[in-house]
Amino acid sequence: MKILNVLVLTACGLLAGCAGTTGGGGNVHSKAPDTEAQQRARLFTELAGAYFERAQYKIALEELRKAVTADSRFGPAYNVYGLVYMELAEDTLAEEYFRRAIELDPRDSIAHNNFGWFLCTRGRYDEGLSHFQLALRNPLYATPEQAIANAGMCAERKGDLTLAEANLLKSLKLRPDNPNVILKLAGLQLRQGRLMEARGNLQRYRELAQPSAESLWIGIRLERKLGDRAQEAAYGLQLRRNFPNSAEAQLLLAGQYE
Predict the structure, then answer these.
(1) Predicted confidence (pLDDT) per residue in 247-256, tens digit
(2) CA-CA distance, 196 to 206, in Å (whole number)?
């Protein structure tokens, strides 16, 4: 799950809640109104972001080319370029475009957050964590809980479970009702063997959001450890019925619970 939303235009719940694609996510500076070229670049970038969210990457790239043709220094366009190439596993291009977005606006918290997540997913954990910190340096960043939650997930991937939990809890202080962060916390607690705490947070998640393959898989493994075979079976049935093609369903069928 892309938390905290690493990605952008909607008001989704990340993990990360969501990041943002087109800038403005707390990156508001005192500046003159947009020029006509900047307005056109922003429009094309917003269109690209919408196509990106629908996984229409070819069309998104076409809109981004229009954006940088209109204004080659419009940083948010390069951020969305980075997101598209990240999804296409074109890592060299993704990194190049994320760095260009940050070069054009070092205070762009959205670009720092997205680049941080890219780095973490490529195993470059310390570099990723540093970009989340850079995102949080901007006092006008509108959604700091996203970068904080992403830092938590990055720390968990790194194996620093103490830092991971600290960041997830900090994110929840800013937005207590983020179901994706609550679910990540439940999964972390399951991994730590804190089963009753994990069960409590899984229940919180279920009160806020519909079941997902991830939440059901956490539930299956949790109830298996707690010895509640009936609830384990109920979660398993939901997973097989509602998400038969998910990676979690395949793990269940293979009996790979750890």
Answers:
(1) 999 999 999 9
(2) 15
Return d(Cα 190, Cα 201) in angstroms, integer.
10
Q: How confident is the model at residue 80 (pLDDT cuts 50, 70, 90)?
A: very high
CA 199, CA 1: separation in Å to the nearest integer? 19
Both tokens assigned to 249: 């369903």
Q: Whole-model pTM above 0.70?
A: yes
- In the chain, the amino acid numbered 98 is F
CA max distance for the chain: 64
In angstroms, rounded to a whole number, what is the distance separating the alpha carbons of residues 177 and 183? 11
Q: What are phi and psi of 35, to 5 degrees?
A: -75, 170
Please report, as a single letter, which amino acid is at residue 30. S
Question: Residue 33 — pLDDT band, cuts 50, 70, 90?
Answer: confident
Determine the Cα–Cα distance for residues 159 and 191; give it in Å rounded to an integer: 11
Q: Given pLDDT bands bounded at 50, 70 and 90, which one contains residue 32?
A: low
3-state helix vs strand vs coil in the chain, percent to 5? 70, 0, 30
Q: Are 64 and 77 in contact (CB under 8 A)?
A: yes
How many Cα atoms occupy the beta-carbon half-sphere of 6 within 13 Å? 24
